[in-house]
Design a protein that fits this description.
With about 450 residues, the chain is an alpha/beta fold. The protein is extended. Residues about 1-55 have low confidence and may be disordered. Helices cover about 30% and strands about 25% of the residues. The strands form five sheets. A five-stranded mixed sheet has the order 1-4-5-2-3. A three-stranded mixed sheet has the order 6-8-7, covered by helices on one side. Strands 9-13-12 form a three-stranded mixed sheet, with helices on one face.
């Protein structure tokens, strides 16, 4: 009895595994940010895939041959069935997929189905796309395209913030009810929320996204953004390193949007700066240098103990900070340091919970104007143009001053060379300063007039 049952069990096992592989499918994973590589080989159906209720109950020898064949063969697409859609028109999806009954496909080796999946995936409407082979009859292959639509946004709320902030976040996130919800949608909204509170001075804002199905609408979700703004951080110190030629107080003055907070203390905050120790004159050095006769030196000496900022909020804004860094470089350029740049900068929380900012300055060399030649000036002589320009050899190099005198930057003062020519009717006048030589600390220019 045992001998007779063994072949029967083996036969049943063979039939089971054969049926499992009879339907070929091509699957894209919704966790991917882009369509993954698509195989045209026969792939067993995923356990998570929605069962195909239209599949035959008996083994189709032709599908078995198609799924196991390694020799490319041409087939004709027969019927196309769309399943899984809730909102979208089935014929529209077939049109987007770019395949139609009567199209020729090669299996294995053809790319018709991979292109169809890519075409549908690019619409950003689906979390999953599968193609099944249903039936093969007289060379015609019936297929099923099964899609899992992404949910749509029913409502969204911001939890843990004031109404005024909530109203602003509606604009900042750009969320719209009824639109498809993707991972990128949620990620972009979270980034916008964090950026909003960072610019308001809250460092380390946290956002949790809770997605709940909306029972009143088909395939729709409600999103709750649970927001923790975090502490509002104020700027304690702005430290400069490498500023050998420019006083730190003058640099701080250029940073209109990044101000330090008011301070009155006998015990200065302990600092652990990133780019080296902060140099602070001792009382003995202050006296020996006659610092009491200089307001700037006195202010620098007492700064760790006393600092009065009546109209400065001292809150940190990344946007204003980035703008202030550009202003620092422009200020250095105006002093002749045309190669100056901020080599590195960092922000960190000190032992009292406030923010310190360290900036490492690469000043470079200071440059001066050299010879200035004119070219193309048929209306006015070199001497007249040089007088109007007002820049002499040996003056500190300042490209802003040069552009202002040439009229390339608009000013209310007037008296520039562009204005001179335009007043005489040269409406399409153009003037370009060109560096012709850089040697040691001197820059020669040729000013070309067209």
């Amino acid at each position: 009895m045992q001998r007779k049952s063994t072949p029967s069990i083996l036969l049943l096992a063979f039939i089971f595994f054969t049926v499992s592989s009879a339907q070929a499918q091509i699957v894209t994973d919704s966790t991917e940010s882009r369509p993954p590589g698509i195989s045209t080989d026969t792939v067993p159906a995923s356990n998570n895939a929605i069962p195909d209720t239209t599949s035959p109950n008996s083994i189709d020898p032709q599908l078995l041959e198609l799924s196991s064949s390694k020799v490319p063969k041409e087939y004709t697409i027969g019927a196309i069935k769309i399943t899984g859609t809730k909102y979208l028109d089935e014929q529209l999806l077939v049109s987007i997929a770019g395949i139609s009954p009567g199209d020729k496909v090669t299996i294995p080796g053809g790319d018709n189905f991979s292109k169809a999946i890519n075409n549908l995936w690019k619409q950003n409407l689906f979390a999953n796309i599968q193609i099944f082979f249903l039936k093969l009859h007289e060379g015609a292959l019936d297929i099923e395209i099964h899609v899992t639509e992404r949910p749509r946004l029913a409502t969204f709320t911001f939890k843990g913030v004031k109404k005024a902030d909530s109203d602003e976040l509606i604009k900042k996130t750009g969320l719209v009810k009824g639109r498809v919800v993707t991972e990128n949608t949620k990620r972009s909204a979270v980034d916008a929320i964090k950026k909003y509170f960072t610019e308001k001075g809250f460092q380390g804002a946290g956002v949790k996204v809770n997605e709940v199905n909306d029972a009143s609408k088909t395939n729709s979700v409600n999103i709750i953004f649970d927001i923790d703004r975090g502490p509002k951080v104020r700027i304690n110190e702005v430290n400069f390193f490498g500023n050998d030629n420019v006083n730190a107080l003058k640099l701080k003055k250029q940073m209109k949007g990044t101000k330090e907070m008011t301070k009155i203390t006998l015990f200065p905050t302990v600092q652990n700066p990133t780019y080296g120790p902060v140099t602070q004159p001792s009382f003995k050095e202050y006296l020996s240098d006659l610092g009491f006769l200089s307001p700037s030196k006195t202010k620098e000496f007492i700064d760790p103990y006393f600092r009065f900022k009546l109209f400065s909020s001292a809150k940190f804004s990344q946007k204003k900070y980035d703008e202030d860094k550009e202003k620092l470089v422009q200020y250095y350029n105006s002093l002749g340091f045309r190669d100056a740049n901020i080599g590195a900068d960092t922000q960190y929380i000190n032992n009292r919970g406030s923010l310190n900012i360290d900036l490492k300055i690469n000043e470079g060399s200071r440059y001066y104007f050299g010879n200035i030649a004119w070219k193309g000036n048929t209306k006015y002589s070199d001497s007249i143009l040089s007088v109007i320009l007002g820049i002499k050899k040996g003056d500190i190099y300042n490209v802003q001053t040069l552009n202002r005198k040439l009229g390339k930057e608009m000013t209310q003062e007037g008296g520039d060379i562009s204005g001179l020519y335009q007043d005489d009717g040269y409406l399409f006048f153009r003037i370009d300063p060109v560096e012709t030589a850089v040697y040691n600390d001197t820059i020669d220019f040729e000013i070309r007039i067209v």
